[in-house]
Amino acid sequence: MHADSAPKALVRLEQLVLESGVRASKELIGDAVNVIVFIQKTPAGRRIKELVQVEVIDGAYKITPLNDELAECAHANGEEFKRSLKDAA
């Protein structure tokens, strides 16, 4: 799905659900979506810009950045991690 950021991806997902004729529910979306990976196209290729955890608390999205986990994963896997992103693009 296309969105301008990880949080906007949730809004876009709600829009897509509404287009299907079903009422969008943050609780259902929150149950289905645990993590959002936002990939941005750069001159050097596609890169992960944001990695966030999604929860729904009291009917609202709670988005927690997982930047430390992203950095650890990139560091631990080095070039293999970068190649996997290129293959996924």
Kindly estimate the percentage of residues that lie in beta strands according to DSSP. 25-35%
First-last Cα distance: 13 Å
Order of helices and strands: HHEEEH
Largest sheet: 3 strands, antiparallel
**Integer average pLDDT:** 81
Gross morphology? flat
The number of domains: 1
Alpha carbon gyration radius: 15 Å
Any low-confidence stretches, pLDDT <50, length ≥5?
A: none
What structural category arises from helix and sheet content?
alpha+beta
Strand order of the largest sheet: 1-2-3
Task: Report the total helices.
Answer: 3
What is the helix content? 40-55%
Task: Describe the 3D structure.
With 89 residues, this protein is α+β, with helices and mostly antiparallel strands. The chain has one domain. 48% of the residues lie in helices and 30% in strands. A three-stranded antiparallel β-sheet has the order 1-2-3, sandwiched between helices. The mean pLDDT is 81.
